[in-house]
Amino acid sequence: MDVFRKSDQRPGAIDYEVAGLNWLADAGADSAAVVPVLSHGDGWLQEPQLGEVRPTASAAEDLGRRLAHTHAAGASHLGAPPPAPAGLGWQGNGWIGLAPLALPATPDDSTTSWGDFYARFRIAPYLDAEAFTAEERKVLVRLCDKLSSGVYDHQQPALVRSSAPEGASGWAARTHGDLWTGNIMWTESGAVLIDPAAQGGHAEEDLAALAVFGAPHRESIWSAYDEESSLDEGWRERIGLHELHMLMIHCKLFGRGYVAQTLEIARRWV
């Protein structure tokens, strides 16, 4: 078996990734396949080298159904970090690609309002990006204010809602967290997820991430997901809104090339 070795010397980055991969893999037999961790140490991990094939609509449909069950495995709250297995030193916040990622440790540190969470923890941390002009930043601040009012709050998909423990008010989906097309490996046995920023989140965020850079057969993924776990009304109209977190990160890391798309979406919801 060929082995892929990944190194990352940022404090806690590899431990966070290992914890996330294990958490996603523990979502159940019907959930999406996740690349296994063969071994890991301080600043490195080893995974099997996956052989890629051309994705098919059938494989995409299977991913959609399985992703619905990954999400349904749930998380205690929005922003919940994956539990750190024994021996891992990671704690606190995480990473999404090269950007820091806020992970409220407990339900009390988070909020039960998706809009308030999204504004405070997924958009506001990147408002200081040098890519934005003062006027552009004002648009994004107005969007944050509107999100925090709760006006855009919406339900999780059906399987996530039905998996919530009795009395759980802030139950969230168990999300990959960085599900752009490059983090899906299409193999002979189906789609395999890699490189997560695993967290408790809204399931629609993973689905929207598929659109940011154009995942193949994404309509098949979305349709199969909706059949397996019905999405709340208006989910298609919210795709852009759920893309904003990833776009904000790209503005922060890579500059003005992503600002026009980001502001176009933001102005639609202000």
Radius of gyration: 18 Å
The count of β-strands is 10
Q: Please provide the ordered H/E string of secondary-structure elements.
A: EHEEEHEEHHHEEEEHHHH
**Number of discrete helical segments:** 9
Please describe what this structure looks like.
This protein is α+β, with helices and mostly antiparallel strands and 270 residues long. It is built from 9 helices and 10 strands. Helix 3 packs antiparallel against helix 4, helix 4 (134-148) crosses helix 9 (259-269) and helix 6 (203-212) packs across helix 8.
Produce a short descriptive summary.
By secondary structure, the protein is of the alpha+beta class. The protein is built from nine helices and ten strands. The chain is globular.
